[in-house]
Amino acid sequence: MGNKVIITADSTCDLSKELIERYNIKTIPLHISLGDEMYDDWVTITPDDIYNHFYKTKELPHTAANSVGEYVDYFQEFIDQGYDVLHISLGSNLSVTHRSSVLAAQEFDGRVEAVDSCNLSTGSGLIVIKAAELVEQGKGVKEVAEELRALVHKSHASFVIDKLNFLAAGGRCSAIEAFGANLLNLKPCIEVSTQENGKMGVNKKYRGKFEKICYEYLDEIVNKYGEVDPARAFVTHAGCDDELVEGMKNALIEKNIFKEVFVTRASCTISSHCGPSTLGVLFMTK
Fold first, then answer.
1. Which of 14, 77, 130, 189 fits a disulfide with 121 by CB distance 3.0 to 4.6 angstroms?
2. Cα 176 to chain center, whole Å?
């Protein structure tokens, strides 16, 4: 019989404390550099701290991946406890974290497997939960890793964004593009391509009031990919109004597609790129 398997993930998987505890998941925070200080995502800094700093100074943080050495130290803790480690990382097209975790895994003679989620936020979180379910079935670390790598393209992440101020400030779109979108009341839908290891692109541009187009987006996205996995879906946001978030959750529940619908808040790493008025519906297909 093989060793017990522990699931670890980057903090960018954006799972709630409830789900982390339910599935016994361990997370390692990415780093946030703001001003002259370095912070750990969700540990010593929150998204609201970043927003408040931006509104006062117009300065956005820099996000920093964990080093190979940090992953080695992190994995070693669990190896010393007798576990094999299955790590799920932020998409390799979005950060060097996956590369660092792969290099770290090579130090442990096959006892650590690093899987590229090819995704972000709860798009990664869905893969993390799948990993936990496979471990609960008694599967070993290599078998779980192989199954996950065949599943990553079935996790679908997309978000609608109200204002492009944060994207412009971070250099991810021009100030002219942001001004034009705001002037025309355009709300882009950003979609993650798991076929391209997490590359993001604009799927559609909605027009109108953000609260209204969120429901339009919900109706379209759940019908886009064919047969969905009914196990669970996420409404993940970066700081939207509570009433809108609760309304989106209820609207998704009323569709009677998913057995569980969770609301989660996006991490600092994700939020610092998109700003507070960002919301997504994330789920898997069969």
1. 14
2. 28
